[in-house]
Design goal:
The structure holds two protein chains of two kinds. By secondary structure, chain A is of the alpha+beta class. Chain A is built from 17 helices and 25 strands. Chain B is flat, with a radius of gyration of 24 Å. Classes of the chains: A alpha+beta, B mainly alpha.
Chain lengths: 621, 304
């Protein structure tokens, strides 16, 4: 009996202590400022990420040439203390500040930017946002690998790395001139070798060959690329960086605030390899904060950097970014005082809070650059008929949609480009007019909807999307007498169906990468990566291309406006509403403003619990 | 005993291999891939990413590579996040285990107590009440219980924090919500088996000796009545481990349950595979332990 008792006692003690250990491991000293970062971020590596949660963290631990003004989100000097722009607006010379430092104390140099951008462009990196760098001269060709070069071009051949080396290192580089992409080797067996003249010698290479020796005098190599010295980025000295662009790009300074163009500390990346260099014990950053630790699906803790050049103006010491998957849970945590800034409040909760008068306390929804729209599949009948598309748009009562399904004051949309882009006037399609819609539909051969072919509205599983689709289905039935069905798919399948154009109408949304209409309009050029409607209009293509080449900003904007006018007449997409931001920010949080992209630099935020009166967030528009 | 363990171990290897193979091909048969996002990748870049993760190889080659890596103990890196799979397991498993253990303790203590009371005072008001509560407990999914618990104990009577991980107070509500449906099952099993035992001859003998009700129930009837509970432990552990998803989400607990489902939704082939294999090992081990405990509790059962 006593033995049995001892055994039970041991098991119970072990159980209790292991539970205690697991719980107490999660116990932490509190942070100065805690915010809801939506979901677990993918990585700290600028080359592999795309989302907003990642952006918030990366912008805190790195800094680009320019940094955003917290109030306007327009560029102001970051690592570069000043810049000169050439008369043709293609050459930017950045002068780096002498006191910009990495978190290990080393100086931030022009070469660190060149390295970061080269790594972004390197096909081996597999960067998703490489296209943000394609405005630089020849950058697109560099990132296309062998496909980007033709015989006669200067190329660089990267030889294979020894197997023990981290993937992030580069093999030995040979510079030469490409002779042929499809040469036959000397033994005549392989006709896919690349011939390059290196020095005075013609050498043959086999790209992507794993073996250290290839037959027939052919040398294996990792890749053959355009010579990087042909790409328009040059470090004149440690503190001067020159970027030469393909064409004038008015939003180039804004792009330098994007993580795709952040500098990287090369020894760190090359020594630890990917992804190990991004781990808290290894990572070297140059931003206002330093990464202390990351717990999966729990939090990322940032601490103020003591090497940041502007550290005197950073007032938060410890910041926690929580990855709470459930928005309701995050809201509960905000209401019980465990979160200071809730980034993405449920729209229907916002409606209730607004009714309770919380817009006087901690809530101030504001429009930002994101459009919710329905994409139409023009390969499918009857959507190939422009009259049908116009009828579908005219038959919508967008006011009803935002009133019933949304709650935060979302704005009805009649154009693709949201308002708020400096100098740009959004071009609108016609507002709701059921009678005109019916007329167009019968003109297209479907009077009262008779004989109208069936199609589906596709959306990803989400309550809000479902409510909207349901409302639209009813409005079309009521105003046009047509019946459409609805199909929801979970995220992965939905994206797949969207890419394969396996839908009639598909819910989509688009958030701008920078403050310019181009980020929306270049989506719909013929065969664009994100067109996904089958729509093609040569006049539209020409206008977008002309705008890209136009030096005069005024004329450029008018060209883009004409393009949007075509888009809104042809309607391969039907805009529904513009998003509003739904931040909940506690009154004691200061230095937080509504911005057009709904991003809020952490370096400017501070907490003042004694402050009285409305904070900047409530006062901003 | 040794030969039993060896045999079970060999079967576990076979099971793992079958699970691996089936999951491997099932995952790839579902539409979509790990690099999908709302923005399409330019084809050159997509080709590079496929090449880097060897997704452009023929399927059998991918299968072979992943299988041999797994055998060597290398579960690989996640596709969706820049972290190795074993880091997820290292961070998430202790959390899930602590939560699960506490939930199990809750369900056992509540269930066994309720079962004994119901059986001993059979037909009384307390029996009826406990049985109705148990029926409701089985019928209610744990997210409903969690929602009610949050309204009561977080907002109406603020005794517990809303969510999070790092103190014992934060653990109580989620463990309760996770364990409650199982407590209801345990109570029903306990009541039945207790009634069964109480009608046995040796209990009558014990009463005839003049023992008090308390001695009869706790010392003589309880050990025999516990056997069916032991056999329920295996499936209960399985259910608690794999069923923690909802509770983990609602209470923002960084356990394994939400990784498991999210990995499948994200088409994160390596992470999903790692977790499927981990769960297979855990459940298999639990079942072997239950088998062994049978033999220990009841000498009539032999292991073979």
């Amino acid at each position: 009996m006593s033995q049995r008792f001892l055994l039970i006692l041991i098991i119970v003690t072990l159980g209790i202590s292991s539970v205690a250990w697991a719980v107490l491991r999660g116990n932490l000293p509190p942070a100065d400022f805690t915010f809801h970062n939506e979901t677990e971020i993918k990585s700290m590596d600028p080359a592999t990420v795309t989302g907003i949660p990642e952006h918030r963290i990366l912008a805190a631990i790195f800094e680009g040439l320019a940094k955003p003004n917290p109030e306007t989100y327009l560029p102001e000097p970051g690592v570069a203390e000043s810049w000169d722009i050439s008369a043709d607006e293609r050459v930017y010379t950045f002068h780096l500040r002498p006191d910009a430092r990495w978190s290990n104390g080393a100086a931030v140099t022009a070469d660190d930017f060149r390295y970061g951008i080269r790594r972004m462009l390197d096909p081996m990196t597999g960067a998703r946002y490489a296209y943000q760098c394609w405005y630089i001269k020849n950058a697109r060709r560099y990132s296309a690998g062998l496909a980007g070069v033709e015989p006669g071009d200067r190329v660089e051949v990267e030889l294979n790395l020894p197997a023990s080396q981290p993937w992030t290192r580069r093999g030995e580089l040979l510079h030469g001139v490409l002779l042929s992409k499809k040469a036959t080797d000397r033994s005549g067996q392989n006709s896919n070798v690349v011939a390059v003249r290196v020095g005075n010698q013609e050498r043959q290479f086999l790209v992507g060959a794993d073996t250290q020796e290839a037959p027939g005098g052919v040398e294996p190599c990792r890749q053959v690329l355009l010579d990087f010295r042909e790409v328009g980025i040059e470090a004149i000295d440690d503190k001067t960086l020159v970027t030469t662009l393909e064409r004038p790009t008015p939003f180039w300074l804004q792009l330098t605030m994007h993580y795709a163009l952040f500098p990287l500390y090369r020894p760190c990346v090359e020594e630890h390899g990917s992804p190990d260099w991004t781990y808290p014990e290894n990572i070297v950053g140059n931003g206002a904060f330093r990464l202390q630790f990351r717990r999966v699906r729990d939090r990322i803790r940032l601490v103020k950097s003591d090497t940041y050049w502007d550290r005197e103006n950073v007032r938060l010491n410890i910041v926690d970014a929580l990855s709470v998957d459930s928005r309701t849970t995050a809201f509960n945590m905000y209401e019980t005082g465990r979160i200071d800034w809730l980034t993405d409040t449920e729209s229907l909760i916002v409606r209730d809070l607004l009714e309770q008068g919380r817009d006087e306390v901690d809530l101030n929804p504001a429009p930002f650059l994101c459009t919710y729209f329905y994409g139409l599949n023009l390969n499918q009948k009857p959507l190939d008929d422009v009259r049908v598309r116009q009828a579908l748009s005219l038959a919508l009562d967008r006011e009803e949609i935002t009133r019933v399904a949304m709650g935060a004051g979302e704005v009805v949309a009649y154009g693709l480009v949201p308002p708020g882009i400096p100098g740009y006037q959004s071009q609108e399609c016609h507002r709701g007019d059921p009678a005109e819609a019916r007329r167009l539909l019968s003109e297209a051969g479907y009077p009262h909807g008779i004989g109208f072919p069936k199609f589906e509205i596709l959306y990803n599983s989400d309550e809000t999307h479902q409510t909207i689709a349901e409302l639209i289905r009813k409005q079309w039935q009521r105003n046009l007498g047509i019946t459409v069905s609805m199909r929801n798919e979970e995220w992965g399948s939905y994206l797949n169906s969207q890419r394969q154009m396996n839908f009639g109408i598909c819910r989509r949304s688009w958030v701008g990468d920078y403050l310019d209409a181009n980020t929306y309009l270049d989506m719909f050029v013929t065969d664009g990566e994100n067109n996904r409607s089958g729509w093609s209009n040569l006049e539209y293509d020409r206008l977008v291309a002309d705008a890209a080449a136009e030096l005069d900003d005024e004329k450029r904007l008018r060209l883009l406006e004409s393009a949007e006018r075509i888009l809104m007449k042809e309607l391969p997409i039907i805009p529904i509403y513009y998003y509003v931001s739904r931040n909940l920010v506690r009154p004691y949080v200061r230095g937080f403003y509504n911005t057009a992209v709904d991003l809020h630099p952490l370096g400017a935020i501070y907490v003042d619990r004694d402050a009285r009166g409305r904070n900047e967030y409530l006062s901003s528009e | 005993m040794i030969s039993f363990l060896v045999k079970r171990f060999l079967w576990m290897i076979v099971t793992l291999w079958v699970v691996f193979t089936v999951s491997f091909f099932l995952m790839r048969a579902v539409p979509g891939g790990p690099f999908d996002s709302e923005r399409n990748l330019p084809p050159e870049i997509e080709a590079n990413m496929m090449r880097r993760y060897h997704l452009d190889d023929p399927l059998w080659k991918q299968y072979w590579r992943q299988l041999s890596n797994t055998v060597r103990g290398d579960l690989g890196d996640c596709f969706r996040r820049d972290l190795p799979v074993d880091r997820y397991i290292r961070e998430g498993l202790p959390v899930s285990a602590a939560l699960g253990l506490l939930a199990l303790v809750f369900s056992m203590v509540l269930g066994i107590t309720a079962g004994i009371v119901s059986a001993v005072y059979r037909g009384s008001v307390s029996d009826l009440t406990l049985r109705s509560v148990a029926t409701v407990g089985i019928a209610l999914p744990n997210f409903v219980i969690a929602g009610l618990a949050i309204i009561w104990f977080v907002f109406l009577f603020p005794v517990f924090p809303a969510a999070g991980w790092g103190s014992v107070r934060q653990l109580i509500l989620p463990a309760f919500c996770l364990g409650a449906p199982y407590a209801a099952y345990v109570a029903r099993i306990m009541r039945t088996s207790m009634l069964d035992v109480l009608s046995q001859d040796y209990i009558r003998t014990a009463r005839a000796k003049g023992l008090t009700q308390r001695q009869v129930v706790l010392r003589h009837a309880l050990p025999g009545a516990l056997l069916p509970i032991m056999s329920f432990l295996g499936p209960a552990t399985a259910g608690i481990l794999t069923g923690s998803l909802v509770v983990e989400r609602i209470f923002y607990i960084p356990g394994l349950g939400s990784h498991f489902v999210q990995a499948a939704l994200d088409r994160d082939y390596t992470l999903a595979m790692g977790l499927v294999l981990l769960y297979t090992v855990l459940l298999y081990t639990m079942n072997v332990l239950v088998d062994i405990s049978y033999a220990l509790l009841d000498p009539r059962i032999e292991l073979e």
